[in-house]
Amino acid sequence: MIRADLHTHSARSDGTDSPVELMAAAVAAGLDVIALTDHDTTAGWAEAADHRPRGLTVVPGVELSCASPVVGDNAVGVHLLGYLFDRGHPAFRAERARLRVSRHGRAEEMVRRMRAAGLPIEWEQVQRIAAGGPVGRPHMALALVETGSAGTVDEAFRLHLHHGSPSYVRKADVDVTDGVRLIRAAGGVPVLAHPLARSRGRVVGDDVLAHLAAAGLLGLEVDHPDHSDEDRRHLRGLAGELGLLCTGSSDYHGTNKRTPIGVCMTEPDVLDMIVGLSTGATPYAD
Ligand code: AMP
Ligand code: FE
Ligand code: FE
Ligand code: ZN
Fold first, then answer.
1. All structural domains of the chain
2. 246 in helix, strand or coil?
3. Closest approach atom of ligand 1 to CA 107
4. Ranges of the chain whose pLDDT falls below 50
C-alpha cells in the first residue's frame, strides 16, 4: 500500500525543515510519496529533485492564499493547492512573484505596528528567520519567541498575530477562480486545501465549491487535521456529487505546528489520477 502525504511545507516558506530534512522526515515516517507545497514559491523543488532519497517519490506543488468569490458581505480566505504545473508558465510565475512581494511589504508593516505597540521585534530579525523565502506570520512568531514576547509560536499567534489583532495586515491574494484557472493553464492540478478549517476563520459554502468545480477545480482536501469526522463525511459526499477527487494530507510545518508528517494520507488511486491529469510536470521518482 502506497503511503502518500500531499501537503507539506519546508523552510523555503514557513516550515522548519529544509527540503532535504523534510524528505528525511517523510522516509522516517514510512511515506512513499510526499508533495512539497510551500506557500507562493517553487524554490524548494530543485533541492527536492537533486537530493531525493531513493524510493521516495516527490510531487512538486505550491499553496496559494486566495479569496473566494464574494458571498454575502465579505470574501472568505481559502487556500488552493496546485500540483505538477509548469513552474515556468509566465502568467502563473508572475502571480507567485506578485504574492511574494506583497508578503514582504505586509510583513514590514506588521513589524512596524508591533514595534509601535512596544514589542522588541526587528525587521532584520524577521528577514533572517524567513531566510529569503516568502515571509509569513510564522517567521514573525519565531521572532517574537526569540525576544521573549511569546513563549511559543502558538502563543505568538494568539497574542499578536491572529486575524483580529491590531498588528494584523492583510496580504494580496488571488481570486480563487483565477487561481484555479492559472494552475490549469500551467498544466497543473488544483485542489482546494482544508475547505472546512473553521479555526482559521469563515469557510465557504457548498455553493462556492460547486462554482469552483465548474471553473476547473479537480479536488478537495478532505482528510486534514483541521477537519472533524463530520466535515470529512460532508466533503466526501459533496466531492462525489461534483466529480472531485478527495485527497488527504498533514499540512506538516516542522516544529512551527504540532501536526506530525503523514497523519492524513491520499489513496493511491487518487494520486494516480492527479498524476494522470497533470501535463505541466512529472513527479520526481526512481
Ligand atoms: P500568513 O500566510 O503569513 O498569513 O500566515 C499563515 C500561516 O501561519 C499558515 O500557513 C500557517 O502555517 C501558520 N499559522 C496560522 N495559525 C497558526 C497558529 N496558531 N500556530 C502556528 N502556525 C499558525
Ligand atoms: Fe503555512
Ligand atoms: Fe493552508
Ligand atoms: Zn499548508
1. 4-98+171-277 (3.20.20.140), 110-161 (no CATH)
2. strand
3. 3
4. none
